[in-house]
Structures are given as C-alpha cells and as structure tokens.
Amino acid sequence: MNETEFVAALRKLPLHPGARGLEDDCAVLPVGGETLIITHDMMAEDTHFHRDADMADVAWKLLAANLSDLAAKGAEPLGVLLGYSLGSSDARFLAGLDEALRAHGVTLMGGDTVATTGTSTYGMTAIGRATCLPVPSRTGAQPGDAIYVTGPVGRAMLGYEGDEEHLLAFNRPVPRLAEGIALAPLVSAMMDISDGLLLDCWRMAWISGVTLAIESAAVPVAARHRSGECMRWGDDYELLFTAPEAARLPVPAIRIGTVRSREHAPLLLDQTPLADPANLGYRHG
Amino acid sequence: MNETEFVAALRKLPLHPGARGLEDDCAVLPVGGETLIITHDMMAEDTHFHRDADMADVAWKLLAANLSDLAAKGAEPLGVLLGYSLGSSDARFLAGLDEALRAHGVTLMGGDTVATTGTSTYGMTAIGRATCLPVPSRTGAQPGDAIYVTGPVGRAMLGYEGDEEHLLAFNRPVPRLAEGIALAPLVSAMMDISDGLLLDCWRMAWISGVTLAIESAAVPVAARHRSGECMRWGDDYELLFTAPEAARLPVPAIRIGTVRSREHAPLLLDQTPLADPANLGYRHG
Q1: Cβ–Cβ < 8 Å for A116, B45
Q2: Are residues B38 and A110, on separate chains, in Cβ contact within 8 Å?
C-alpha cells in the first residue's frame, strides 16, 4: 500500500471522535474542562533525511514538525514523547533535541528507545492545550474568505540546495506557534504548509468543499524566478489560513487569493483549474 | 550508546514534571480536573519481532504493550496514535490492529504513516485517564508490604517456543486493564512485567529504595521445571505490585514475597542476594 491507501484503510478501524476522521493533522480531545491537541509525526532515514545529515538538525526538525501541527490548531505545547531508534549519532541527536526543546520552551514527557538493525526511524508525539474553541481545522474555508500565508515559501528549498542565506530555514525551521495562537480565534480554516503550498491549498479546498483561487504573483516566494517550484516545495512550516475579508489580522500575513464556491477543480492558479493533486507538491509513500 | 546510556542522557534534557524523571513507563499529566496517563512504545523488526512474523500479531502486541503500561497506572484508555512504517504486510497489520482495538474497546485518534527503505519500526502512543489518585508508580514499595503478581510468568516463553497451549499468550497477550483499575487504590507500587519478573522486581526495588525478597516456590510459573527461565522471560504482561499485608485484594493475585528495608542487594531470591540486574531478564539495546 502507499500512504494514501493505508490511511484510507485506517479510516475503517474504530476511530475516536476526536480523530476528525483522520482528515486533520491532530486529534482533538476534550479532557477535564480543557481541550487537548495531540499529534504524532515521524522522520525516516532516506525518506525524510539523508543518512549523512547532522542528526542535531533532524532532532530539531522532528520537534518543529510536531509543534507546527500544534501551531495550526492555535495550541500551546504541553510536552512531547520521543520514540527513538538507537544509531551511530545519538549524541548529536540529543544535542539538537536539547537545543530545540529549550528554544521552544517545551519539555520531554517520556517515550521509548529501541535498538534497530536497519535504517533509523524517529517518532514524536506532541501534546498541546487548545487556546481557542472551536479548534481551527482544515475544513472551514467559506466562499468569499480571503486566503493568507504567514510568510514566504521556498526558503527551505533554497536551503536544501545549499544557499547559505537559507540554510537555517531548511535545517532549523521555526514553527509559527505564536502566530497560530493569535490567529486561531478569527480563521475559518488553518493548516501548516508541510508538503507544498499548492498541494496544501488543494487539500484545504477539497476537505472544505470549496475552490481556492490563488494569484501566483501575490504569493511570497524566496526566489521569484522559480515561483512554481517554491509553491510546490514543502518544509517551510508557514501557516496557510482563510478568514473573512473584513477580519483584522493580529499578525503579519500575506493575502494570496480568495475562496470561491466549489467549481470543477478545487484549486485555481491564476484562473487555471488544477483538479489533480499530482505534481502540486510533495506526496509521501 | 545503549538504551541505558541514552535514557540517562535524556534525563539531562528539559523534562516535564509529569515525566517522573523518565523512571516510569508513563507520563502523568494533570489537565483541568482530570489526570492523563500517556505512554509511547515501539516495536522494531529483528529486535522485537522476526520479519516472518504475522504482522497481525505484531499490531496486537503493539497495542497490548501500550495498554499494559496504562494498566499498571490503573488508567482507563481514551485512545491511541499510530506511527507506522509502510511495508509488505500492511493489510495483515491493519487486520490485527482492528481486532485488537475492538477486543479492548479502544479507538484510533491519529498518527503518521511513512515510507521507509529498511526494516520496519512501529510506534504507538496510548492516552488514558487516571481512575485513582495518586497514580500508582514503581517507587512506593514499603518494608513489610506483600509482593504479588496477577498471574503466571513464562507462558509467552512457551508460546514463543511453539507450545500450542501457549501460542496465544505469546501472540495475543491481554493487558490487565481491569485488574489495574481495581488494584490502583490499594497498591503501594505497581508495574507491568514486560522484561522478566526478576528484572522488573529488581527495578521496582531499586527505585523504591527497598529490597524485594522473592520465594521462587511461590511464583506461579508456566513450567515448574524451568522456573528460572520463566522468571527471566518477558512479554507476559502480568502486573507486579506491592500492597500492605492487611489489604484485601479485589482481584485474584498470587503472593510471591515480602518487601524489606534496603539491604546490600535490591533483590533476594530464596535468600540469595542478587545485586546485579544482569541476567535477571531481557535488557534492550
């Protein structure tokens, strides 16, 4: 199976109501008068990082990816659990995790450590507290809403290619936790951009039952002459959100388009319908 | 690093107060008026299962191992998140997970799925609700307490060896959730036996600052002529606990010894001091 097939099969198992049908990045769990947000992200050698990568960066990104999911829910992190495969760079991994936890003011709650014989796979579970109800989801984009991103896309791509100016954007991405908390009360839909702006726009439109019309000239990109690539590369961890046109945004964000009633294609890029999510971004598995 | 060294290094990172110094199997997180119990367990190919194992059994055991950690805290499961590496037996894994979730009345809350190039590693996070405060830990065994197990050890060993009568004990272990909830209000210390009775007794004694004196003739074993092996094999998922001698137990359990003030060795087996945890059970990494 590929990832899409496997997740489709998972949806036939007994699901928790807070799983949101496995359509979202996080589970939403009301507990004791609070609402918890819970997410689990993995990074696998060869798939998510090269074996010669600095494991300190991998540890940083593992935490960042999890916290970015919390950010998209406007959640405040409470702690993380680590699932770790012992390998040859354990000390570097620990150093990077230490830096990342301290940089984001997050603490380790537990986890598991195993010996493995093959490539390394790391998992992390992050637990956060919702700061705003209802918890933002991917599903609420409404016709007429404006579409925004919190910052430029393509920086991670340039960093991956070795561009000195953008190395940190690739190796040490910063999840938009404060922005997510500030935006949560006024967004109609929100998600983090992990697999490419266009693909994530397509997904938000699909699940919201609307069409997102994006103006490429308005999209903030790290390299204007490569805007198509910047809009398809992932790992930028900016937030994508929709909000009523009249909403006054509490944090800087760039408007990139407008939500329309569902047309044939969930996505319009400069008026061109893009019905097929293939080639819009990074697809796993 | 091996697992012990890695966990020691993890203890120097910023820890959540609910992490209990990473000395326990679960994190304890007060949320609103409730207390959550959170655990993460992994299973890795070659380390925890053979590549020709039925992945339906592996999925079952992954859930059972996590729920067994909740059982030792007297927690009621709320849901689980799955971290899954795609492989060649995805359909079997899904079938086993489906059976296990339904058998235990547990639901899937979320997770992540990745493609990997090497051996498979599976992770699961289980979240439960404490039914009793304070939440039982490994640390509270008191001199004079009686020591109990909820059932025989060594069944999983015989099942692993192919003994028809005990195949299910190895392939489809049942976590002692109901027993854990019933026992939680009266135990002084509790943990599940995952790495072997003697090793886990040694660990409970060490962290409680006492000595556990075990009478081997009293230990319920699946094969009396191999009692030493039965007491050192893991995967039985019975609960080990201590309680005041006068406590009236709400569920069947077998007394196997008495807690003493700390002597030179944390463990006495038929009066023989066992100071070194080596050779007492299964040690990872």
Answers
A1: yes
A2: yes
